[in-house]
Each structure stands twice: as C-alpha cells, then as structure tokens.
Design goal:
Length: about 450
C-alpha cells in the first residue's frame, strides 16, 4: 500500500468493513470470496460497491475516507479528497486485505456469513423477475423462461421469495439456467422481446452459473461489527451539494446562475427559491440511512450514527461558489449534457404531480436519444406508482390546499427518483429540465 503517510491497521480495516452503501454490503462482498472470484474480479466489484465517503472517530483521532474509481483515499481530519498528507489504497490492495480479514473471521459477522448465499439468491431472483415482467407482446406465443411460470402469482415479494427458494434446488437451478441461456441467445438476435433494455442478461446468466459452482465456507466468532462513532465528512457535504436542488433541471440552473456575477444575498435568495421545501433519502454517498432536508433556513444533512450537519443558505452559497470555481460542481459529462440542451435557464415552478409524471412520459416519447428516452420510458410507471402511493402526498391531497399538495407532490416525485438508485437516470433528472429533452 504505497504511501509515506500511514494509519493504524485497525482504522483501515474498519473503513473496509463499514464503507459499503448499505447494511447488506458486507454480504455482497463476502459472496465474491465465497464464489472464488479472482483478486482482479473482486477489485472491480469493490470499485462499484464502495462509493462516496465516510468519517470515523477512532482511538487515533478523526479519520476520513473517500472511495473513487482508483481506490480508497484516507486522511486524518474531516476530509480525504486531495488531502495532504494522505494515504491511498488501490482496489487490488483493498481486495487482498479484505481477503485476509475474511480468512481471519474479522470482516463479516457470523449471521452475515450464514445468510450470504440466501441473500445472493434473493437479489438474483428479484432481478430475474424484473426481466420477466418486462416481456413484450412478442413473447406471448414463444415459451421463453417458461420454467418460471410455476412461481408466478401474488405480489412481487412473494414471487421473489418463491423463486429464491427454488434456486437452492440443483435441478430447478439447472432448468432455469438452461432457459436463461436460450433466452440470452434469442435476445441477442431479437431485442424486441423486451420492452426495455436495462437488464444485464449476461450478468443474470453469470449469477445462475455462480450458484452452480461450489461456494467456499467461511467461519467467524464475530457476533457484531466493532462499533465506531462516525461523522459526516466535508467531502460528503460537497458531494451532496453537487446533486443540485432535487428539482428537474435544478443543477443546471444553479450552475448557470453561479457562473454569472451576483451578490451573496442574491445567490442565497435564488437557492432558497430553487430548492423550496423538501428533501430525500440516500443523500450522502448513496447510503441507505442518510437524508437531506431543505427549507427557508438552509440545508440539513443527516446519516445514521452521525451528528447532523446544518448549513445556512449563505454557507451553501460559499460552498457552491467554490465548487463551481474549482470545476467540481459539474462533471464533464454533465457539462456536455447541459450544453447540448441549448436551453435558457428557467426558474423551477411547482407542478401537479400527475402533470410532472406526464411531462416525463412526453419527454421519453419525444426523445431522440435512445438512452435518455428509454430511461424515462422504463422508470415512468415505477415513478408514477410510487408517487400515488406516497403517504405524505396522499395526506396533502386530502388535508391541504392546492399549493401545499403541489409541493408535496414534487417532493414525492423526488423521493421516487432517489429510491431508484440509478445514477444515470438521477443525473439526467437533476441536470436537464424534462421539457428540454428531445
């Protein structure tokens, strides 16, 4: 692990244990080792599994971590990106160290190791059902994935549970795998058999083959992961601000406004209006139990086991100004997408939730880009169902006036989009006003 700066090994190990995006992360990582994946394959997996940052209050002091495509960045204090002095661990080295922890029974708990294969089957079953439910009318007379038919019926959770259990039977697994192999061949020649094309069919097939191979067993006496107090790092705060206002096109409008000369007060007033009142989950490093809330006073960031961070609008102005000036607010891809719209910035206005959803549908229908259009078309019914099932929105419709219902409706749409955990769709939704796509 090349670095002139170093940290206690216990601190590094704790970062690797806790750095995943949710509570099931250690099981997903453990599965890679149980399946006997190579170090290179595990390193590539870790690059996708660990995102954003985290802070730990250790016995040696504050330690911040940041995960990117190259590896893990570590430093003392409240930030790790571009920190000096700091420590860098490439993903290959991180994979090696986690392997050592797995061998020593010091990475995951005994319950997590016991449930890892069941969790893998459940996640695979869920993805297979997503695929099956997206069959087009072309498949009505073609017996594709017919081995799944006996597990259909009831709600999606029930179907997933039945299929996950069935995947533990070798004969059933072999039958479903054979069906998936045939489906993959047909799909390669005729993509029209699916309505949408975001399913990674080779990955599903690989997942089934992984279940056919022997899994290595690991043991541990660890009943719980060592407890360490955590904190929200400065890196995470900056990253949260680069998400924009959670209003369609908001990030682009903010970037354009801050690219011009305005006073601090004007910028604070602009942000207060742009953000409005609302919030969303998954706000910090896409962690499941993290939240962002904003109102007339400013922004609040929270994450489980961490002290809340409160930012006034004047503080937000200073931070966004720095991000824009240092070219860290938009990625190069986002800049290109923003320039491609050739649209004048417009103030965000509340819209009826149903109208906003219809706007998504219109954008998808008219989109010339396959990627953008198909994304919106794929997620439209999911977002619509989530909005109309949103308790806060339903209560606002029953008990509030039209203005509050519209505000809560837009918040429901934002919550639905965030809950999809699709960074490509989320990025497009934040940067480009839906009305300018196409």
């Amino acid at each position: 692990m090349p670095s002139a700066f170093s940290l206690p090994q216990n601190d590094i190990d704790q970062v690797l244990r806790l750095g995943g995006s949710d509570d099931a992360s250690r099981m997903r990582v453990a599965a890679q080792f149980m399946m006997g994946k190579s170090t290179e394959e595990i390193a590539a997996f870790l690059q996708q599994e660990y995102r954003g940052g985290m802070g730990l209050n250790t016995d040696s002091g504050k330690v911040s971590a940041w995960f990117d495509e190259r590896g893990v960045w570590l430093a003392r204090g409240d930030h790790a990106r571009d920190a000096a002095p700091g420590m860098f661990i490439p993903w290959l080295d991180a994979a090696d160290r986690i392997g050592e922890l797995m061998d020593a029974g010091q990475f995951a708990t005994n319950v997590e190791l016991t449930e890892t294969k069941n969790h893998y089957r459940s996640a695979l079953a869920q993805s297979i059902w997503y695929l099956r439910h997206d069959f087009s009318e072309m498949t009505e007379s073609v017996p594709l994935l017919s081995s799944l038919d006996e597990y259909r019926g009831g709600g999606f959770p029930e179907e997933t549970a039945r299929l996950a259990k069935a995947l533990s039977d070798p004969q059933t697994l072999a039958s479903i795998t054979k069906d998936m192999e045939f489906f993959a061949q047909v799909y390669a020649q005729q993509r029209g058999i699916l309505r949408f094309h975001y399913h990674d069919v080779p990955m599903l097939l690989e997942g089934l083959h992984n279940l056919e191979t022997p899994w290595r067993e690991y043991s541990t006496d660890m009943f719980a992961v060592p407890k360490t107090e955590q904190f929200i790092t400065e890196d995470e705060v900056d990253e949260a601000l680069t998400h924009g206002s959670s209003v369609s096109g908001g990030k682009g409008r903010i970037y354009r406004y801050f690219s011009d000369e305005h006073s601090t007060k004007e910028r604070a007033d602009f942000l207060r209006e742009e953000y409005g009142i609302g919030g969303h989950s998954g706000a910090l490093s896409n962690k499941t139990h993290s939240f962002e809330d904003h109102d007339g006073k400013g922004i609040r960031l929270s994450k489980t086991d961490c002290a809340e961070v409160t930012l006034s609008w004047n503080v937000v102005v200073k931070r966004i100004d720095t991000l824009v000036k240092t070219d860290r607010y938009l990625t190069e891809k986002e800049k290109a997408q923003l320039d491609a719209t050739h649209a004048e910035p417009a103030q965000a206005t509340p819209a009826e939730p149903e109208s906003a959803v219809q706007e998504v549908a219109s954008a998808a229908k008219e989109a010339a880009s396959f990627t953008v259009g198909d994304l919106y078309a794929y997620y439209l019914p999911i977002v619509r169902d989530a909005v109309f099932a949103d308790t806060a929105y339903q209560n606002a419709c029953r008990n509030s006036d039209r203005e509050n219902a519209m505000i809560e409706g837009n918040a429901a749409i934002n919550r639905a989009v965030i809950s999809l955990y699709d960074t490509q769709f989320y990025g497009l939704f934040m940067i480009i006003p839906l009305s300018t796509i196409g």
